[in-house]
Amino acid sequence: MGASLGELATRFGCELHGEPDARVERVATLGNAVRGCLSFFANPAYRELLRHTQASVVVLQAADVADCPVAALVCGDPYLTYARIAGLLHPRAALVAGVHASAVVAASATLGRGAQIDAQAVIGKDSMVGEDCYIGPGSFVGDGARIGDGTRLEARVTVMHGVVIGRRCILHPGCVVGADGFGNARDADGWVKVPQLGGVSIGDDVEIGANTTIDRGAIDDTVIENGVRLDNLIQIAHNVRIGEHTAIASMSGISGSTTIGKRCMLAGQTGIVGHITICDDVVIGGATMVTKDISAPGFYTASFPAENNRDWKRRVARFRRLDELAKRVTRLEKMKGKHD
Amino acid sequence: MGASLGELATRFGCELHGEPDARVERVATLGNAVRGCLSFFANPAYRELLRHTQASVVVLQAADVADCPVAALVCGDPYLTYARIAGLLHPRAALVAGVHASAVVAASATLGRGAQIDAQAVIGKDSMVGEDCYIGPGSFVGDGARIGDGTRLEARVTVMHGVVIGRRCILHPGCVVGADGFGNARDADGWVKVPQLGGVSIGDDVEIGANTTIDRGAIDDTVIENGVRLDNLIQIAHNVRIGEHTAIASMSGISGSTTIGKRCMLAGQTGIVGHITICDDVVIGGATMVTKDISAPGFYTASFPAENNRDWKRRVARFRRLDELAKRVTRLEKMKGKHD
Amino acid sequence: MGASLGELATRFGCELHGEPDARVERVATLGNAVRGCLSFFANPAYRELLRHTQASVVVLQAADVADCPVAALVCGDPYLTYARIAGLLHPRAALVAGVHASAVVAASATLGRGAQIDAQAVIGKDSMVGEDCYIGPGSFVGDGARIGDGTRLEARVTVMHGVVIGRRCILHPGCVVGADGFGNARDADGWVKVPQLGGVSIGDDVEIGANTTIDRGAIDDTVIENGVRLDNLIQIAHNVRIGEHTAIASMSGISGSTTIGKRCMLAGQTGIVGHITICDDVVIGGATMVTKDISAPGFYTASFPAENNRDWKRRVARFRRLDELAKRVTRLEKMKGKHD
Fold first, then answer.
1. Distance from CA of A298 to the nearest CA of C (A)
2. What tens digit of pLDDT does each residue of B226-274 get?
3. Window 126-145 of C, Cβ < 8 Å to A
4. Whole-prediction pTM value?
5. Interface predicted TM-score (ipTM)
6. How far apart are CA B26 and CA B166, in angstroms?
7. Which of A305, B66, C155, C292 lies at a C-alpha separation of 20 to 30 Å from B93?
């Protein structure tokens, strides 16, 4: 593969400082790059690495050209441009269309042109797998499920019956889409299961991380809109709706029937209670629990950073005596009043 | 399928307001219901939807009949009654008894009458699968494991060797029962693995969520009693015991050798440390860590709700100066003393 | 199997109080042991059980011999010695070398002598599986991956393409090694996927818990050093490095490009932000979030223990009025100043 710097500059709208005919074959980090590698500079913490890089070319902003000892591709957003160039230099292996001998495909399933069904995969009755899909080893597509064109189930993915997934999605290993939501009604003797009869509807260009779980709706569907990015080990409960282009980091949990707006960003280990609405363009800090509607865009948080355990324990003890402290202040105020 | 309103009223002990011969075919939400649908009203927030519903009948309490423009099935607990009616109107597809050609069943395994072993499942030596069990695609039942009558392993479930599971349980995709507990003894050079020699014993009518993990005991068994409900992505460590009808929401973790009582409810992302005992009828709030025994029923919590990040940071700064604030109050008190 | 007490004393360096020819067949807890069982005493909370144990022998420290009614194997660290004896009395079943008829092994894969590839496993092209490896049911080894001698993939494990795993590791069911890291660059219309081109390098004697996920690096590798122990449902993001013999409990998450030192211990549900460094010999308390570098060994924490909900809510209300309280104290100080 590989590309010339001139080609890259033209294709990705960069200003080239250097020889247009020089070529790069692959990407590398600033510190590990050698001749033939393209690197990028986006984090000022790595300026020393930039100054000594052996890369053939670095993608960076105009302000940083002076620190670059090699050729440069200058652009407004080096990380974004890097992402696109990396996709060009390192394309995915082409699919091998067809069904592996060990896979099990129901007679009533429809497979699109160019789709690859890999070893040990199972495709259920009346399901549809789109064109150029990849259904990886050990993955399961349930009865009546529909997988849009160009979507990939990487390995050991579970898509339960009736789930609808859009185009160009990537489902990473071990994720489960369409398991029953957690619906239980109390009776005198314990719990009665509430049948989970809804589905899951996932838009186009969605990415779902390894071992993440997205439950089917109780009656209506759980909905993930276009362009949503979900990291690993996330829980999306029944009847949640997640708006376009929202990104959620690992280990976050969204409880049932909650709606999250568009372009939100949730850091890791956030928890959102059920039946609330978070508006568009909200950012939630790490390990923060959201208990009420959020109706204004902005940055919300509620977690304490780690401290030396001795200091922390003293603070917690103080916190537990806040009532007493407040009462002491009130008493002082009253005495003050008497004196004045 | 379908049922007449008169039939439903009789069977589920409701008072019918409406035509006994009218029929419903399926359930729907108040807002999306059309003719032929049954809906329910249990959350006052949806009263406007009730007033405009197109459902054929709504399950509700007597106090809400006046707001219902259509037929009503009146009962004490609409959600519970709805759950039962939904189970009747939407029964599970019947099992197809037998072993799929792609499944692998050890010669020494015992399969009960009516059991279905689906595609790519693996059933180990000397294991027992009960009557009318469903072992879903890609699921694994280890050597010597026992699965009670009517239990379902939905898809890609792992049940390790020797695990015992009761009757009518549902194990959702990706859950793992009986992996080794986290047992490590320190030696001069690092860690020595402590063999995990116990099993897991799961009662009847237990539900285990997608990608939840329940470890085998170190020596004795890990025990999940009858009727327990576990949501997705939960961790149950070795030698934990969970009492009957306790329900635990997603992403909660119970550390080793802890005992949780009966009828407890743990919200999402709770963490319970090891070697403690929580009594019956305890409710734990979301994202709360429990570090000590709880010996009185009640509601326990310890998490802060999200706030605007600027406000939150100011509060954290104040929290960090609590020591100083307390000292200032003490100084004021002393000066006061001098003056008095 | 079984062993005589004399044999055990010699082999594990214990002082024997009792008959050297007496034999034990298996391990048991102090409370459940019967004749023929070996038990251990390491937690003072169980002293009463020690006093009444029916075990044939107990592994314990010299100080506890007086409370032991049966034979004793005296040593400095009973838990460690127990771990080793348990490994001797309860060895793993021997492997059955060879490839199960239902497994799929690429022609270009290399299988070491004595390796067992169990039912429904899939071994990719150009991969290497070492000697005496066990690749459990439904596990997947991607193209070009390398699994070191004596390593076990218990069941339904996913090892993606190019991942390198050392010797004598144990990967528990459902874990995923080498899925794409969470790399997204923003553009005007949403997110552009940043290709995840690095690998994962795992040392020797590493244990990875059930449903834990370890992402491949973005450009360079994610690295887990020798002897690391990871519990269930842990997230290790791209380009994390975890130092030798560090142990991490369940549900912890390590964000991208963070380095954790050697011999650290992280309790359950900890969260470590990205791009920071934690030095050797650090202990992090449960449910604690670490937001900055830690450069001194020690114990760090930041979580509140559960309380009665009414008390907790009152404290949170006080916390929210800390600003006001501080202002009241300042006002008192000023008035004081006026008076003095």
1. 18
2. 999 999 999 999 999 999 999 999 999 999 999 999 999 999 999 999 9
3. 138, 140, 142
4. 0.97
5. 0.97
6. 31
7. C155
